[in-house]
Amino acid sequence: MYVGQLADLIAIQLLNWRWSWTSTIATGMVAPLISLIGLSRVSERGGSDDLLHLLVGALVLGICFENQNKLASHFAYMRATGALSQFAALPVRPALLVLASATAFFLLSLPSLFVTAVLGSLFLQVGFHLHLLIVIVVPMVTLPMAGLGVVIGSWARNINQAGAISVASTMVMVLIGGILVPPGSLPAGASIVGKISPATYAASAMNQVIAGPVTSRLLSDACFLIAFTVVTFVLATRRIRWRSGEE
To answer: Which parts of the chain span the membrane according to its record (predicted)?
Structure first.
């Protein structure tokens, strides 16, 4: 029953974006590629390892934070337009709507992830060392940021506030998480604070399955990301829990 409802909700969300999926894919590549090009000269000083770290960071920026920002705006928009009340009239659980929305935006982000990886690899002239676990890690690192985006969108007062909060949180997590620069080059304070940021663990997991090698740290990264995902999904579903057709 729940599987069928989830599939229907994913289809609804994808159909809602059928007119703008090309722009969604394009915008998902802009920020990562600009960041990659802008920081490439600095990273060249550290050799190929730093360049590969930069490329992986650009992929994390695209797959995680773009989804977070879009989901924050999406849920704020659904609240403002009454779309959540329409979903409330359906016999579905709020958790399924959150998961379906996260899944739909994840699927829409895959083409931009692929193009960013190919263009970035060609521009930086670095190669990947892909591990089979990448098929698990990529969706795993996306869900925590997606959940955070839903929390922001469901709690913000309006769409503009949701976008501002999401972008601000993105900038902070990118700064303290060692996403685009090696963690060792960050100030000590940033490294310490970064231990509570899901972006730190997302970048670590992605680096292991893309640049290698895969170590036991991947398990601790996965535990943190899964725990953060559960917390954000619970917070989001509690906020949008509807009663009598209201959010």
So the answer is: 20-39, 104-124, 130-155, 162-181, 218-236
pLDDT tens sequence across 128-165? 888 999 999 999 999 999 999 999 998 888 899 999 99
Q: What is the chain's length?
A: 247
Using alpha carbons, select from 80, 92, 81, 76 the residue that is nearest to residue 241: 92
pTM of the model: 0.85
Closest-CA residue to 241 (of 84, 61, 133)? 84
H or E stretch including 223? helix 217-239
- Nearest Cα residue to 56 out of 144, 110, 121, 111: 121
* Two tokens, residue 214: 């895969």
Q: Which of 34-43, 96-105, 114-123 has the highest mean pLDDT?
A: 96-105
Of the two residues 88 and 157, the one the predictor is more confident about is: 157
Tokens for 224? 């943190």
Structural tokens at position 82: 């009454």
Nearest-angstrom CA–CA distance, 79 and 75:
6
